[in-house]
Design goal:
Keywords: Hydrolase. It catalyses: alpha,alpha-trehalose 6-phosphate + H2O = alpha,alpha-trehalose + phosphate. GO terms for molecular function: trehalose-phosphatase activity. This protein is α/β, with parallel strands linked by helices. The chain is 30% helix and 21% strand. A hairpin with a 3-residue loop joins strand 5 and strand 6. It folds into two domains: 171 residues, 3-Layer(aba) Sandwich (Rossmann fold), CATH 3.40.50.1000; 78 residues, Alpha-Beta Plaits. Helix 1 runs parallel beside helix 8 and helix 3 packs antiparallel against helix 4. The chain has eight helices and 14 strands. The structure holds the ligand O=P(O)(O)OC[C@H]1O[C@H](O[C@H]2O[C@H](CO)[C@@H](O)[C@H](O)[C@H]2O)[C@H](O)[C@@H](O)[C@@H]1O. The site of the ligand O=P(O)(O)OC[C@H]1O[C@H](O[C@H]2O[C@H](CO)[C@@H](O)[C@H](O)[C@H]2O)[C@H](O)[C@@H](O)[C@@H]1O has 24 residues, from strand 8 and strand 10.
Amino acid sequence: MATFAVPPPQTRDWRELPDAKTIDTGTKRLVVFLDYDGTLTPIVEASDAAVLTAPMRASIARLARHAPVAVVSGRAREKVREFVAVENLYYAGSHGFDIDGPGGLRKQVKTSAVPILRAARSQLEVWLRDVAGASVEDNVFSVSIHWRGVAEADRPRVAGAVDAVLALAPFRTTLRKFSGKCVFELRPSAAWNKGEAALYLLDMVRKAEGGAHDWFDGVQPIYVGDDVTDEDAFKALAPFGAVGVLVAPADESERPARTHATHRLRDVDDVRAFLDALAARAEAPPATGDASTT
Ligand SMILES: O=P(O)(O)OC[C@H]1O[C@H](O[C@H]2O[C@H](CO)[C@@H](O)[C@H](O)[C@H]2O)[C@H](O)[C@@H](O)[C@@H]1O
């Protein structure tokens, strides 16, 4: 059997990444993955206030006319679908545990954990009801415990409540804790994350297009995200030559210092301009030798 070595993905300081204007998208077929919070909408105080603007919706819809587009979010699939409200996209909610897409595609990972997550959420609501500014968000296949609005002095109480609930049976064996931007997340214990979901979706796009295994040689995956949970996807897609775009404002204190992304953008406005540039490229393919997005 032939073997080949896949180089390990590189981590690097995000401040040293080139910005997305320099991406050579070549003539390959694009497959675009988009995180939601912090990527398509700015980070805001109240989770439910992070609604998509009409211009961003139009840019996503425009690109989706030319390339498969997937939204990969920590939010519940139904909620992110409702917020984005563009048809014919792939939607992966709860960090990829709950997926749907065109043609009736449906994949749910660890459905057995859903009632356990519901029970954990109820416990957390009790533990946190006296902590001003804390909130518990039901993402169906995950639970988000928000502490952005919690006073500095009370933040240890939030972390303590999450750890106390996670120490109880059956949670301690079935759930795992992760951290994001001013949020703790409980997810099912499983070898699944945004990276696995992105690989699954890439293969589903291949199947939908009737591609054989050499189909992967002709595609250019692009993943745009801003949070630590997106690092799994940057890493998983790297062997496919993916362009990983980190949305990282210069003053962003919530960014990890090192990333598996290959490029960066400053903010949500830059993301929209980037999506428009990709769509424009598909509408008027660049002449040979001029394949960048600008
Ligand atoms: O994977 P994502 O689409 O980036 O979702 C990650 C979490 O995003 C949301 O929380 C974050 O954004 C909120 C709105 O800007 C902000 O208030 C919060 O502090 C952030 O953590 C969402 O509410 C979570 O459910 C997602 O898991």
